[in-house]
Design a protein that fits this description.
This protein has 85 residues and is mainly α. The protein has one domain. The chain has 3 helices and no strands. Helix 1 runs antiparallel to helix 3. It starts with a helix and ends with a helix. The relative contact order is 0.15.
Length: 85
């Protein structure tokens, strides 16, 4: 796999991961009470705990996307630009 293909793969991975993050947030906002009801049946969670766990999960996911998709993409972009000059 050459660097250009790897860069394209990382770009698409970044787009897909951010789409997942946006969908997660939208579902969390739109169906908050239904989701909380389901999770309260499984676990003994207060509304504050449910909210904080979801926001923490979104934050960890976002940090992972930044570290494993965006940073390598930017690095490859810099490397391929310097090779082209």
């Amino acid at each position: 796999m050459d660097l250009a293909t790897c860069r394209k793969m990382l770009a698409w991975s970044l787009v897909i991961n951010y789409a997942i993050l946006i969908i997660w947030f939208a579902v969390f906002i739109a169906a908050h009470d239904q989701l909380m009801g389901i999770h309260q049946r499984w676990f003994k969670l207060s509304a504050e705990q449910f909210d904080s766990y979801n926001y923490l999960g979104m934050a960890i996911y976002k940090i992972g996307v930044l570290l494993f998709n965006l940073v390598p993409y930017i690095s490859l972009h810099i490397v391929t630009r310097r090779q082209g000059k």
